[in-house]
């Protein structure tokens, strides 16, 4: 399914949020990154508990962006994973074989979304 203007605009907003953090030497690159809504993907046994998943260039979402669907906080979280893979293309995915709850990349993505959220305390 082709990416629409709304998804692209949401990616740009998520990038702007991450750019404020300076976690890596280069800011996240959006070239080639796309958002795909794929509820079927999250029916796979090991992925049922997730609402989003990032590869090096694709962010898979269980539900479309917007009210009642995927939040921009989750999109920012997943884009942070793309950013991590841009800087650690082999190490970052490899760490997914270990504990999800204590994975340093997962913790970093959670913090990145939380501190840049509109709901974050000022």
How would you explain this protein's 3D organization?
This protein has a 3-stranded mixed beta sheet with strand order 1-3-2, with helices on one face. The chain has helices at residues 5-19, 72-87, 91-95, 104-116; strands spanning 34-37, 52-54, 58-61. The chain is globular, with a radius of gyration of 14 Å. A hairpin with a 3-residue loop joins strand 2 and strand 3 (58-61). It is mainly α and 122 residues long.
Our count of helices gives 4
Cα(first) to Cα(last) distance is 38 Å
Order of helices and strands: HEEEHHH
Looking at the chains present, what oligomeric state does this protein adopt?
single chain
The rounded Rg comes to 14 Å
Q: Label the overall shape.
A: globular
Helix and strand content put the structural class at mainly alpha
Tell me the number of strands.
3
Percent in helix: 40-55%
Q: How would you summarize what this structure contains?
A:
With 122 residues, the chain is mainly α. The protein has helices at residues 5-19, 72-87, 91-95, 104-116, and strands spanning 34-37, 52-54, 58-61. The N and C termini lie far apart (38 Å).
């Amino acid at each position: 399914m082709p990416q629409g203007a709304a998804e692209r605009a949401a990616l740009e907003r998520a990038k702007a949020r991450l750019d404020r953090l300076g976690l890596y030497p280069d800011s996240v690159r959006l070239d080639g990154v796309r958002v795909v809504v794929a509820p079927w993907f999250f029916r796979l046994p090991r992925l049922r508990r997730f609402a989003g998943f990032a590869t090096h260039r694709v962010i898979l979402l269980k539900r479309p962006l917007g009210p009642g669907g995927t939040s921009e906080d989750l999109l920012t979280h997943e884009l942070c994973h793309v950013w991590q893979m841009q800087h650690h293309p082999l190490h970052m995915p490899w760490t997914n074989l270990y504990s999800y709850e204590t994975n340093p990349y997962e913790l970093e993505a959670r913090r990145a979304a939380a501190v840049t959220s509109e709901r974050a305390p000022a």
